[in-house]
Amino acid sequence: MEQIFTTVSTKGQMVIPASIRESMGIEPGTRVAVRQEGSRVILEPQTLAAKLRIIDELCGLTAGGPSMTDMLLEERRQDRIRELEKEGW
């Protein structure tokens, strides 16, 4: 990844280079989340494209694991069995 340098102004402002803004879909008025991770400052644009990218990254994250739907259905089935037993069935 190419490094591009920018300078922080006396007001704490900096310019995000045009090539990065364009590739990330950052336009005037775009909200940007800022957080610190150790000695790094992370900027995350809050655009639709960025949110869709996160969804794509998370898609399939739990593939191969247990089905949460199946687990929920089994839990409900066990609840119903307990209810019927309490009723004397």
Describe the protein.
With 89 residues, the protein is an alpha+beta fold. It has a domain at 1-60: Pemi-like Protein 1, Chain: D. Helix content is 42%, strand content 13%. Strands 1-2 form a two-stranded antiparallel ribbon. Strand 1 and strand 2 form a beta hairpin. The longest helix has 19 residues, at 68-86. The relative contact order is 0.08. The mean pLDDT is 89.
Summarize the structure.
The chain has 89 residues and is α+β, with helices and mostly antiparallel strands.
Per-chain topology:
Blueprint (H helix, E strand, L loop, with lengths): L17 H7 L7 E6 L2 E6 L2 H11 L9 H19 L3
Antiparallel strand pairs: 1-2
- Would you identify the regions where 5 or more consecutive residues have pLDDT less than 50? none
Mean pLDDT: 89
CATH architecture of the domain at 1-60: Ribbon
Element pattern in H and E: HEEHH
CATH class of the domain at 1-60: Mainly Beta
Q: Could you say which overall geometry the principal axes of the C-alpha atoms support?
A: elongated
Please give a handful of descriptors for the protein shown:
2 strands, two-stranded antiparallel ribbon, elongated, alpha+beta, Pemi-like Protein 1, Chain: D, 3 helices, 89 residues
